[in-house]
Write a structure and sequence with these properties.
By secondary structure, the protein is mainly β. About 0% of the residues lie in helices and about 40% in strands. It is rod-shaped.
Length: about 240
């Protein structure tokens, strides 16, 4: 007989700055048509591109003649030692003479809600499911040192001061896309991988003095957007 036994998990708690989405889920045991998992691990409010604290369950078995493999899918992963994580683990018959702890972590790359499960693959073992659920929220890693700080005025007159629009720390997000819009929401400037070089022009011609709207997208899967206004001042 092969069992997955739930242990008291250490719940991962991360402060969500902008978005909190609550997850509902249903896990189906395809082998027996059951809808009730043997245990559930919930991960709450995990920032994208960051790993949660691990939670655990126990693998145990008796009278097994072959190894047992437990597996899941990203953004969940498994580990025997809480150091090296992978989508699947295999336990030998010898290992399962004693209970084995499986560590589970949640590392999302896109904002949203997730539902998955840990299942076993083994000959002669009962199929047991550990349901997994997680909530991915906007990254909270924009702290001092890598937070964007955009200059809101440029004076492109060639005097070497404020001639171009500078966004501090933009170099730390190389997959960024910057767009600037006029009052009618038409795109007047767009660049992928902005390098602080826009000087208030459109099609190489100087734009009229005025205030424009900008959006900085941090890159695919980041879930981060930075918005604001930039004013072009001409003497």
């Amino acid at each position: 007989m092969y069992l997955l036994e739930f242990l008291s998990p250490k719940r991962s708690i991360v402060t969500a700055t902008f978005i909190t989405v609550f997850l509902t889920y249903a896990t189906i045991n395809q082998a027996f048509g059951q809808t009730v998992p043997s245990a559930t691990l919930n991960f709450e409010s995990q920032s994208v591109h960051h790993s949660s604290a691990p939670q655990t369950f126990t693998v145990r078995g008796s009278n097994l003649s072959e190894a047992v493999t437990v597996s899941t899918n990203p953004p969940f992963s498994l580990s025997k030692d809480s150091v090296n994580y992978t989508p699947s683990l295999t336990f030998t018959v010898e290992e399962l003479v004693s209970n084995q702890t499986v560590y589970v972590k949640f590392k999302p790359t896109v904002i949203g809600t997730y539902a998955d499960s840990v299942v076993n693959i083994s000959t002669g073992a009962d199929n047991k499911i550990v349901a997994l659920s997680g909530t991915a929220v906007e990254s909270t890693n924009m702290l001092e040192g890598n937070k964007l700080d955009a200059n809101n005025i440029i004076t492109p007159n060639g005097d070497g001061r404020n001639d171009t629009w500078v966004i501090k720390n933009i170099d730390q997000y190389p997959n960024n896309t910057v767009k600037v819009f006029d009052h009618s929401r038409s795109v007047i400037y767009s660049k992928q991988g902005y390098t602080n070089d826009w000087n208030g022009t459109y099609n190489d011609a100087p734009l009229p003095q005025g205030t424009y709207y900008y959006v900085v997208d941090f890159g695919p899967g980041s879930g981060l957007v930075f918005r604001g206004f930039i004013t072009v001042v001409r003497d």
